[in-house]
Write a structure and sequence with these properties.
The protein contains 39 helices and two strands. With about 775 residues, it is mainly α. Among the domains are: about 1-65, no CATH class; about 65-220, no CATH class; about 230-360, no CATH class. The protein has a two-stranded parallel ribbon with strand order 1-2. α24 (about 460-475) runs antiparallel to α25 (about 480-495) and α35 runs parallel beside α37 (about 710-720). The protein is globular.
């Protein structure tokens, strides 16, 4: 059934648009594109005989009664259902919309005011859908004079006279309704705000922004979420790599214009509360569209102010900052890390300093402070990205800022050099640390011991370890218990994998007899070692140690047990389940999903086999309360499509199998799963790859799965790489409609891609 369905999707991708009158013209063109693609793929899709007739009828009715969204049930949030609107009101609404559109076209502001007042008095504004709101927002924008550099006179083209206060009030009301209803078209509001700025009335523009925000809050469309992580926010919007600030419900172009307005009479520090409350990042494309309206000096000031606002917003949310730094480090985005760090540090020493080193130093001018982790986290990130010169610059910046490095910062430096295998630099840092009267803690020892092992100097590492043990034996040491165990675990790990089993066993026996008490990481290290050797007796000995010592096994333990036992015991999964129950762990979907994820993270064909075996048994309902769900399948898709550790035919077959299974079991794929499937399908250059990608795309639309900027980028990038310009342009039109009929404000990377597509000729045009 799935194959039969997907075979038509390449051609019928946009056919549903025939149901929406305002999209009739677009639908005809996209249908031609889709049909052309179907022909090249060898498909012969069939459409309802009356499709074209219906489309023509809809087109003719549009001129008199543009009420598509009434019949579709798509109206402004909070309005009464369309079914409750009497026929007489429907007719009145249709006539009023048509008249209003005509009045705007004639630039008859008097009639615009009259008709809009009529719609408002009859409570019909709530029934205007996104197409109508977008049309009237643009009508307001088109009515206003062009906005060149310099001052302007606001006049009516017909009367050549200044607009009256009442007329301005009408245009403002229309712009606000359009900006806060439907898809939130802000063309008109942006035009009014910019005009206020350019005519020397920036406070009026600021007032418009406040009215806009107030209406969003009243409709429940603006909810502050200052503690969300970058990952949670990215579920819905694209994050800027350089700042980590994410678009919220306030349209970025309106926020930017409000910032520009406030800059005329407020300081950067005064503007910051307004900016931070919006929880919105201004996209590069939005900034590029606004800056040409100002001279070079003003444009430079706007860019600098916006940059500081973005950085201040990020500093005010330490959790987001930390996660963002971690993400940049993981992706080795050194340039972005450097840019982020440099911008923040500039706030400490610039001509207008706005960053405080300590929370106690926050004031009206220094509005945010550096979080405790700032220096050590950036230090560690620079070294992880193999940029020791940046780490050295950071150390100089700390000195200039009169910040005394804490032992945790020294540890970050030691650990970074150890990971770089720069053991001489690590040893030099250790000596310098001692010379500054900074006493090493347990994590300091862990870092230097790790570095010596990494440099293949195990004997020197053991000397440091004995020095550490001697300090432990002295009364009054101040080492943290949990940190002490990490030192022992580091030593055990490296001894085992250097095949020094006897020494490793001695360390474990000492821990068991006199401390520190081993934890589950200690025993998991031995389990993994014996499992890789295929030493079942060794695995058994370690497992027997857990229960008497009251140590709780974890997912790593269970997964390792399953991995080592599956090849020799047909009932290995049952043995694992029994062991889990003895440990007080309920074997459910969450537990098994975690085990599957752990297996696949090992990234070997053997672990893939183990994971798929467990998944198959979950699908066959062999385990109580352990059926696979969307998270289970997404974990599999994510792991197998990351890197090149599996043969591509295996990956592609597994992707198809998982998709078919999810459909058969009625499991709705999430945003992340669709992104993976889309990217993988589009990377497969055969016709079937395109067919599958379009099938996934259509499913996202029909199932109303959120299509974020990341998904649009994957789609368009894949179609561009395939040189399928007809379908790429069709998707661009879908993107445009999803953004309320405008591509303003989409992120810079996506904007660049869209521009490349729309400027290239389409073979289907």
């Amino acid at each position: 059934m799935l194959r039969q369905t997907t075979s038509h999707r390449a051609a019928s991708l946009i056919v549903l648009d025939f149901l929406i009158p305002h999209n009739v013209t677009r639908s005809r063109r996209l249908a031609r594109v889709a049909l052309a693609r179907a022909s090249t793929l060898g498909y012969s899709p069939s459409f309802p005989k009356n499709a074209t007739t219906s489309a023509q009828a809809a087109a003719s009715s549009l001129q008199l009664a543009p009420l598509a969204h009434l019949s579709q049930g798509s109206h402004v949030s909070g309005a009464q259902p369309p079914s409750t609107l009497p026929n007489s009101q429907i007719e009145a609404l249709g006539e009023a919309v048509s008249t209003l559109r005509s009045a705007f076209a004639r630039r008859d502001i008097t009639q615009v005011s009259q008709v809009w007042g009529l719609l408002k008095s009859r409570n019909l504004l709530a029934f205007l859908g996104p197409p109508q709101l977008g049309m009237f927002s643009r009508a307001v924008s088109d009515y206003l004079p062009a906005i060149p550099r310099g001052s302007l006179e606001l006049t009516s083209d017909n009367a050549r006279r200044p607009l009256s206060n009442e007329e301005i009030k009408t245009l403002t009301e229309i712009a606000l309704v359009c900006a806060t209803g439907g898809a939130g078209d802000t063309h008109g509001l942006k035009g009014l705000m910019l005009l206020s700025i350019k005519t020397g009335h920036p406070r009026d523009a600021a007032t418009l922004y406040e009215q806009y925000v107030t209406r969003l809050r009243e409709k429940g469309l603006l909810v502050d979420a200052p503690d969300q992580s970058v990952e949670e926010l990215e579920e819905h919007e694209e994050t800027d790599e350089a700042t980590g600030i994410v678009s919220g419900h306030v349209r970025d172009e309106i926020l930017l214009v409000a910032v520009v307005a406030r800059m005329q009479f407020d300081s950067f520090q005064d503007i910051f509360p307004m900016y931070s409350q919006a929880s919105t990042r201004v996209a590069p494309a939005t900034l590029e569209a606004i800056l040409p309206l100002f001279d070079d000096g003003e444009a430079m000031k706007i860019k600098e102010c916006l940059r500081r606002l973005e950085l201040a917003a990020l500093l005010s949310r330490p959790e987001v900052l930390l996660r963002h730094i971690t993400k940049l480090t993981t992706s080795s985005s050194t340039a972005s890390l450097d840019k982020l760090y440099t911008g923040i540090v500039a706030g400490l020493h610039g001509s207008d300093p706005w960053v405080a080193t300590q929370a106690a130093d926050v004031s009206a001018t220094r509005i945010v402070h550096l979080p405790d982790f700032f220096w050590r986290t950036f230090l560690s990130s620079f070294l992880t990205c193999r940029r020791p010169e940046l780490a050295e610059r950071l150390w100089d910046d700390m000195t200039q800022a009169n910040v005394r490095p804490e032992v945790a910062t020294w540890n970050a430096l030691l650990d970074g050099y150890a990971k770089l295998r720069s053991v001489d630099a690590a040893l030099g840092t250790w000596d310098f640390m001692i010379s500054r009267s900074v006493q090493p803690d347990a994590l300091s020892y862990r870092a230097i011991i790790y570095g010596l092992f990494q440099a293949n100097r195990p004997d020197d590492a053991l000397i440091r370890f004995r020095d550490f043990e001697q300090k432990l034996s002295k009364p009054g040491h101040r080492f943290d218990d949990a940190a002490i165990v990490t030192v022992y675990n580091t030593v055990i790990h490296h001894l085992l994998f250097a095949s020094r089993d006897d020494k490793a066993i001695k360390v474990l026996r000492k821990m068991e007899s006199s401390g520190p008490t081993p934890d589950i990481v200690t025993y998991n290290t031995y389990l993994r070692y014996y499992a890789r050797k295929g030493d079942l007796k060794g695995v058994g000995r370690i497992l027997q140690k857990l229960e008497p010592r009251g140590i709780q096994a974890d997912i790593y333990t269970f997964s390792t047990l399953l991995s080592v036992m599956l090849d020799v015991k047909p009932n290995a999964d049952r043995m694992m389940i029994n062991f889990m129950k003895k440990q007080g762990v309920e074997p459910d979907t969450t537990t098994f999903t975690s085990i599957i994820d752990h297996q696949l993270r090992e990234a070997t064909p053997h672990n893939f086999k183990v994971a798929m075996s467990l998944l198959s048994k979950m699908e066959q309902n062999e385990y109580k309360n352990a059926e696979p769900n969307a998270i289970t399948y997404t974990a599999v898709l994510t792991a197998i499509n990351k890197g090149n550790w599996l043969d591509r035919p295996v990956v592609e077959e597994t992707n198809r199998r998982i998709w078919d299974t999810m459909c058969a079991r009625g499991i709705q794929a999430n945003h992340s799963a669709y992104n993976i499937l889309l990217k993988t399908s589009l990377n497969s250059m055969g016709p079937e790859g395109l067919e599958n990608a379009l099938a996934y795309y259509r499913d996202m639309m029909t199932q109303r799965v959120h299509i974020g900027n990341d998904t649009w980028y994957i789609l368009l990038r894949g179609l561009l790489d395939r040189k399928d310009m007809g379908m790429a342009n069709a998707v661009v039109e879908d993107l445009r409609q999803s953004k309320g009929g405008s591509l303003d404000g989409i992120p810079g990377s996506l904007r660049t891609l869209v521009d490349r597509i729309v400027t290239q000729p389409s073979e289907d045009a």
